[in-house]
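Query structure, 197 tokens:
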């Protein structure tokens, strides 16, 4: 199985990339291939109608969409900025469609330099899957005090968080296996209803 981990920070060398690299170390028993997308490095344009018309500025989206289409599961990581998810991650989710994400599982992950981190998860759960129909896991991860909880060697110094992370990645893999036939059978069937009610 394939998994794509998306680091949603717009900053270089962000804590979100650190979390992405850490979570990648936990995927080996469950996923054969792992891709990490760093939205800072990608520097995607802000969504506009040109993405539907295939204008030149959106040529860079084609290989990303192909990677997402070939992925069986996703991890979306966002820092908490002023209690919100990043514009880069929300823009990314606006660009995705049911072709790439529908009926596939996604783990939401929030990163906080203090003890917060809940609000971005709630925000993404409310609107992040409206048109792409990705299935957010009922569980999520919040990396609090991130500067001290993850080492430069991609290890977690917080044992309960390590155990929780291992469990949640295993859960994501289980959902990916279970939902594979749903994605296969229902993406085309759902095209008339892709924009919800």
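Result returned for the query:
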């Amino acid at each position: 199985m394939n998994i794509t981990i998306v680091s949603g920070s717009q900053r270089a060398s962000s804590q979100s990339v650190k979390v992405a690299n850490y979570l990648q170390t936990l995927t080996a028993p469950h996923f054969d291939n792992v891709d990490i997308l760093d939205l800072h490095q990608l520097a995607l344009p802000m969504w506009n109608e040109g993405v539907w018309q295939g204008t030149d500025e959106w040529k860079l989206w084609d290989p990303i969409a192909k990677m997402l289409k070939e992925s069986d599961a996703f991890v979306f990581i966002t820092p908490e900025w002023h209690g919100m998810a990043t514009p880069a991650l929300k823009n990314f989710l606006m660009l995705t469609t049911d072709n790439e994400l529908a009926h596939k599982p996604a783990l939401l992950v929030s990163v906080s330099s203090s003890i917060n981190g809940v609000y971005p998860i709630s925000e993404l759960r409310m609107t992040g899957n409206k048109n792409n129909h990705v299935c957010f896991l009922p569980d999520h991860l919040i990396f609090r005090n991130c500067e001290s909880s993850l080492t430069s060697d991609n290890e977690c110094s917080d044992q309960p968080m390590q155990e929780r992370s291992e469990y949640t990645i295993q859960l994501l893999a289980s959902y990916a296996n279970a939902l594979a036939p749903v994605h296969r059978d229902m993406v085309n069937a759902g095209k008339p209803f892709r924009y919800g009610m």
